[in-house]
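Open question from group meeting: does this chain pack into something compact, or does most of it stay loose? Before anyone orders reagents, we agreed to write out a predicted structure and look at it together. Recording both the input and the output here so the notebook holds the full record.
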Amino acid sequence: MRQSRADGVAQAPRFDVLGDIAYHRANTAARSRVFARRGAEGGWGHVTAGEFLSEVTSLAKGLIAAGVGAGDRIVVVCGARYEWALVAFAAWVVRAVVVPVPSSASAERVRHVLRDCGPAAVVVEDGRHAGTVAGISAELTELARTWRLDEGGLEAIARPGAYMDPTAVRFRREEARREDPAVIAYPVGRVVRARGVVLTHGNVLAAADGVVRRLGAALGGVEEGRAAALLQLPPSDVHGLAALVACLVGQVRVGLLPLGAGWLRAVREFRPTVVVATPRLLEEVHAVERSRARETSWDSLNAYNAATDLAVDFDRAERKGAWKRVSMAMYDWMYARIREALGGRAQFVVCAGWPLSEKMDRFYSGAGIPVYQAFGVPETGGAFVVNAPGERRAGAQGRPLPGVEVRLSREGELHVRGEGVFGGYWRDEAASRGAFRDGWLATGFVGEMDAEGYVSVVQRMRPQATLEAPLAPARPRAPRGGGAVAESAPGVAAESGPMPAVVPEAAAPVVSEVPSAGSGSAPERAASAAPSASAAVGAAVDQVAALEQRLQAHPLVSQVMLIGQGRPYVSALITLVRDQLEYWRLVNSRPLSMAPEEIASDPELLKEIQAIVHEANGTVPPGLAVRAFHVLAEEFTPQSGLVLPSGELRRDAVLRAFAEEIDGLYRTPEGGPRE
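Structure tokens returned:
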């Protein structure tokens, strides 16, 4: 087995627990800026270390007064906001465990997290998930408080402890240990019912510390106190969490902003020295500039393509002679536009979450913005390899962090061990044992490793490290609905693609509106070969639920309702996430005046949804594949009468409200790609 190990050279500040970061910064440099927060009308304000600690302490007293004890779980359903950091650090200070859930999560995912971890308190961003929590509160015997940030906000959390002596917080903090659990992460992806990854304070700090040691030198030319990072990855994602903690450990000011809130415009306003982004953002920035060049003239487009190739070749060249530099200078007008799109001050980009192509990696680095790829899984605290100044391999995800060892199994799977590797899954000893091979974490990813120890991630083998196969969702208990829709947009015939969600209807042995056994419709025919009708239907339920999960995993998709009962084939109503819709409009250079309904009917967006459907259809038999879909620009809401207070869809109401759109999916001959 090929194996690689890295040992740290530079010493990074060492903290025993996460809460110590806030106290250390406040005690050593109370006026230093640690966070930047965007105002309601734009513009960025700054939060000093002293102010941050004061707010954290107030919330910590409130949590203690509310009865939150050491080891209690606090579920935080929130996007990339400053308030997320406040709640998380307050929880860590009182030895509670943070269970982060993205605000874009489906109701089914939220219910699974709540039932699995048994929280003592829940913090939700707004009313979108408040109904979901209320709907199953009777099952959550340990749940004592639910707070909404849009109703009372942080004040409601702090109020119970307003008159408490701060020494209560100090006593809790002094009892904290590095091996205490800090986070239970439920990975967002194809599997809704994922296992909770328990990360200790030591796991999270080890990953963050390793990143700081590797990338600290890249900020050597930045004036002290001027380093600032804008995170595209939300802290509810384990990669975003690692980036957030690494920035605070490395004394880099942090800006948090929800993805849909005019992210590219905010980058120009914030002017970060470090951008932490996903490959998709970098690809879209390049595509936007290319689109602008094409709209200008064909000559501009040809020049843009030539400049792209030149930057790639320049980064690849070992010797960058005078002629190459002169050629690059000729196209600096184009590279300046790319640099300006990322704020104009970016010293480098950290690309995480998924591998970036070698071409894009070389393009940005050749254009003057070095890209350092990083990669990790939830079980490693978010990072175990990273590229660094002087140790960068384009297209690869980097070398192991200090103190981390990586090897390849005979099957090519990446195995990892080190301080950042977790100890096990939440209340699942068997799965915890199954995640390891002779003391090494089996990551579930196939990779490659060269002779110098650079790791390249190739593909995913399993949804989680411990899983030999995707988790089958539990049979629904008795929900009355399945997906969700909003305002109408044209139907598009398709045969597959990653779509949002479908919630099975438990009153009968069917999933969503997919037909039951004995109906004669398409989904039934897919199961008719099974030994018994009940077994076939059960298999179909699980398959359609898995299809729903894959569709909902896409950032654009909010809700999905499958329709097939009494129909010749399966179709779907798909609603879009409003913030993501705005983000799509920005990166695809659509005019500001474009209404959501127009965006939802945009041919390029429909192609993207169609590709998602096509991919998801590959996971189910042909008879269960989605053959046509209709995209809606608005989500179903309780106010529209299409969603129950529990968060479940009112399927009958959706069918009536969108009867014309649904009929249109069957009046139009099937089209789109065929499997």
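Observations to bring back to the group:
Confidence is low (pLDDT under 50) at residues 5-11, 468-537, 669-675.
The first helix runs from residue 19 to 28.
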